[in-house]
Structure formats: structure tokens, C-alpha cells
């Protein structure tokens, strides 16, 4: 009985979606984007990308609507509700991150069952996109980001890189350090991880002094990369205290204004950027092209990172940061 | 405890502690409560000088733990006074980032003169301390709960306002050479100038606790708050002053860290809550109040900093750092307790004055 009801609902929803899709065809694509809070510094860049891509959709009579939670206290269920809210408005396509698969996968499956084109972006990876039947994944993969950073180090002659992990044990930070290590090993060097205890977390001096100690202890270290932009500020002080600025090249995952200024001044070699703007921009553009013209990109997944910011492109990056896109 | 509190009550209305002690003999020095903390510190220093190698003993190695100790120590001193008076202040964990963000937003984001940012940050610390103190007095709710509430409230306020005002949770700050020299520079490329601020704070707090009536009032309040008030001590004023001093010191550390690291993050500082309490407890201050000394707090802070940073000079796998920190801290506290018990239960054979 239950299975039959489910089937009927699915057919009904599919029917509704089909009619809405045809009507949407006439006045352009109605795209719904599920994302973080718009005032979150990271998500404001994703939103800017989605909004900019939305201008193209608007030219053809379509629209892009951003749906974000009020807060992150109950992220999974709240995001699942947002997906259902989007679905109830007869969308031409939906973009969403798979933050909490347990809570959100059912809602995503309803989207696919209703015949609405879906792209997973920002988190979940291609695995989530395949599992849910989504068209594509647009975003970053932490291990690939680590590989990108490690390759850059390798091609610039670094042989022993310290990966400073202030959140040891977390999957994403461990993946970043592992990527660094694997890429450097390939170019004949090595990378060790420096896991810092929780009694150091959030205290830049404790982090800086720990990095200084590690650099002093092993004088073959010629590179230090931190898992966050804030930790790079500590690492910069550590390197100058250890008087190793000529030898030890600093880098970071993600970046902030202070880090960009360091790259410009030459005291930091590079930053690994996951380019959040592109996540919003590409996901919306891909869906707009599909909904209007049936375009489908064969490249799957679409990785927006790692982008490398170094002395060569730091000026352009700073201009982008001032515009709210970097 | 009670008899000690009564001694202090008697003293509160008479002369400060320092004027009552007789000439110290070697025996009385060994029985001083700080000896446990001193031995604890020497033990961990010895431990890391063996396992830490030449780098740990170099000036760079010493700077490693002195820099961490000086920032922690500036907060631990007023926290120690509060704990001696029978209170706790958890809100320092949010005060540090709140102060960092205040100066970074005012002087970094809006480009106001650095002195405006510094004064606003320190003023915020005093204001939060004042609110803490008034809430504790008026509500009679334990300060643990009151400051836990202000810890969260202030963290939320900092995050919310930072995002509204600067659109970011991380703000860059460029400060001039004078501000850098005073608050955020390294002497000889290694020692933070904060070290001198810590020494100044030690001298000030040491004077207050040992040579002023105010110090006696603090000890008496921690021993027995009701009797202290009955004896004519303005306990409300003392409580508010103590919370304002911890707010001020926490905001000082946040402010100087922002200048030192040229930036401020919303998610920082929480580790100062437990680290400051740990440092104070290692230093021999009782969690229940009424007992403690400035020398002890300083030694406790140094011990904690040595253990926390020394680990990175050793060849140990850093994954075990937290375990080793925990074990060494427990050993230091146990050693301390043994000596304090010895000091307190010692019965003088000849004269009564040897008791202190």
C-alpha cells in the first residue's frame, strides 16, 4: 500500500515537474540555489558567483533564488527543508551542497524523482552526485587541493614540508596534509604533519611557538603550510622568530587579507584557494545552459580548486577580494 | 581553612601580611607554599632539558615558553586573584577575541588611529568586567555560571557585530611602529615585548596582594565572604574591581595579539579559559578560594607553558602531546599539594610567628 502511494506521488510529482518545466521553458529557467548564510564570508563569495551567473539567466527571462539557513545550529534538517521548499516552487533546476548526507539525501532524491535537474556543489564530492543521481558535482576536493599545494612546493624545489594541522583528526584537514605529503613524495621530497593539541587551538602564540620549535629542531625543513589562513599569520611570525625566512617557504590553505599582503610582500610563497565564486557561478551557469538549451558538460566532477595564488596573480586576487569575489 | 580565614580576618583590619612575618629561616622557606610550585617547575624544566636537546636550552627555546607564558600569565594573574577571592571568570575566553576584533575593526577596517582601537578594546574589557561583577553581586548566582553566560553572550556579540560591521570573521590590522614597539614586537627577534608587560603586571599584583589592605581583603573574602563583609570589608567593591581587572587583562592580551599577528579572528582565545585556570591551580591556588600567592601563580604559568611548548622540542610523536601534557600537569599539581599540606600542617616547636 505504502509503496503504491509512494509510486503514485512520484508519478504525480514527475507530471507536475514536466508541466512546470515546459512552462518554465517559455519564460527562462527558474533556478534555486541552496547555500550557506549570505553573511558568511565564504558563502557570500559563492552567492556572488551564483548571482553573477543569474544575470545571464535573467536575460533569457529566468531567475536565480538563493535559499540559506538562518543559522547553522540544525544544519542538516534545515537544509533538507530548504531543498523541499525549492522543490515546491516548481523549479527548472536545483543546486545544493550535500553537507549532511543522512539528513539531506532523502530530500535530494525527491528532487531527482520529480525529474528536476540537480547539481551537487561545495561538499559531497562526485560520490554524492552519483549516489543521488545528480548531473554533476561542482566544487573542491580536499585531497586534490593538498596535491595541488604539494606539487607547487615540489616544482619550486622544496624537499621537506611541514603541514601544520591545528585540527588533527578532522577528515578535511587530514586529507589536505595527506595530499601535500603524497605530491611531495612524488617529486623526491617528504612532508610531515605537525598536529597541535587542543590546548593550543585559538592561541596564535602557542601555535607560532610550536611551529618555531619544529623548524629549529629539524633544520632541513624548507616549507611550512597551514590548514587555515589564520594559522598562516602565526606561522609567519614563527619563521621570522626562527630567523629562517630565506630558507623556509610559507604557504596556506585558504587566504585572508593579511596573507594576500604577505604574498605581495614576498614573505609567503602561495595560498591554495578553492575559489568559492566559481562554485556558485559554474553550477548556476551549467544548469541554466541545460534548462534552456539542453547543454551538458561531459567533465565530471567540475573541480573549482585548487587555485594557486602567488606573486604572479596576487594583484588580480586582491582586486577580486575588494570586489567580494575572492 | 577556617582558622586561616580567621587569621586573615584579624589581619585585614590591622597590618598587611608582609609586616607581620618575622625573619625567614631555611626551614620556614622550605615550608612556604610556593616551594611545591617551584620544584614542579624545575622538574619539568629538567625533563625537557634532557629530552628537548640543545634547541630547548637556547635563547630561542626559552623564548618559546616565555612568550606563551607571558600572554597566559597576564590573564592568569587576575584570574588567580579572583580564585583566591572565591570566584571564577570564564568570560576571558571570549574577551580575548572580542578585544582583538574591536581593535582590528576600528583601526584596521575603519582606519581610525590605532590609539582609538587600543582604548576601545581596553574599555570594552573594563565594561565587560564591570557587568560580570555587578551580575555576580546582584544575582548571587555563582560567578562560574554568570561568567559562563557572559562567555557565550560575548562570543555571539563578537561574531554578530563583526559580520555586520566588517562582513568577515577575520580582519586585517596594520599598526604603526610605536604600537608595534609597545605591544607587538620581538626583542632580539625572539622575545615578545608582552614579557615586560607581564613582569609589570606581576609587580603590580604582587604589591597589591602582599603590601596593601586590598590584598588582605581578597584573601579574607575567599576564606569566608560573609565574615569578611561583617568585618567591614567592602566585598562588593572588591568583587567588581577584581572582575574589571580580569576583563582588562584579557582585553590587553587580545589587543596585543591583534597587533602582533596583524590580524584578528573571531574564533580564537577559548583555550585561555582552561589554560589560565590550570596555570593558577598548578601555582597552588585553591579552587575553593582563600589561599594562594603571586609567586605561585607565576610559577604555575611558567610550568604550564614549559610543558605545553617543550613537547615540540622533543623527539616525541606530536600525536601524544596532549597525553604528556596531562600527565606532567597532574604530577606538578600533586607535588604542589604535598608541599602545601606540609606547609599548612607544620607545627612550630618554639614560636607561634613561624606559622606563616
TrEMBL record, chain A:
GO terms for cellular component: outer membrane-bounded periplasmic space. InterPro entries: Bact_Solute-Bind_Prot2, Peripla_BP_I, SBP_2_dom. Transmembrane segments: none annotated. Its main location: periplasm. Gene3D superfamilies: 3.40.50.2300. It is found in: Periplasm. GO terms for molecular function: carbohydrate binding. PANTHER family: ABC TRANSPORTER PERIPLASMIC-BINDING PROTEIN YPHF, D-XYLOSE-BINDING PERIPLASMIC PROTEIN. Belongs to the bacterial solute-binding protein 2 family. This is Sugar ABC transporter substrate-binding protein. It comes from Mesorhizobium jarvisii.
